[in-house]
Amino acid sequence: MNIKRIITAAIASIMVFGFLTGCSNLSSESDGLAAASLSPEQIKELRKEYPLSTGSPENVDLRDLTFKEVLDHTDTVIVAEVIQQMPDFSVDLITEPGTPWGNLAEKLKDSGLEPYKPMFTSFQVNVDQVVTGEEVEGTINLIYNSEFKGIEPELKPGMKIVAAVKKGVGLEQEGSYSYTRYGTYYVVEDDYVLSAFEGQTEEMRAFSRDTNGYKLDHLIAEIKALKEN
Hints:
Helix content: 25-40%
Order of helices and strands: HHHEHEEEEEHH
Oligomer: single chain
């Protein structure tokens, strides 16, 4: 039994919001908002500070998600400003017999290994606006599994972002929301936006192509239209 493979596959399931097939059926309800956009040269220069997220952890097979899939498996989309990075923290998994985590715990125990406790990387942000979904306000923490460090967007104090987020579970994640590169945009100078991720397929590229480098108001309108479909 390859314990490393079991652990990393389980890690992936913590952060990725879903593997259900979705479709990116985007309606253009606000063509006027798309009029102004950054030039390819401007985007190339800004990418030095706001790079695209690429790669995946070793021994984890991930299928990239469309923005529509992310919306289907998250609770809300927010505009927020990053305050600071918080200390990493660990989570005790529920290991009831017969559950996936329970089976994993038994395998680890049989191999003489300690129970697996995933670590999470955390950033404190202040919510400026809820774009769609459940109401979130004030200061919250955005988190991702630390196995994805160097892959998920690294947030810095003062950054402004748009992020699709999902409410954390358990006491350790109270007041925290997970986020992923598949549903994150950077807000750059003069309220333009840059996607944190661009997929390899036409379905994945469609949404970022229609929003990347455009104004924040245009992105917000397109997210609302996509959510309604």
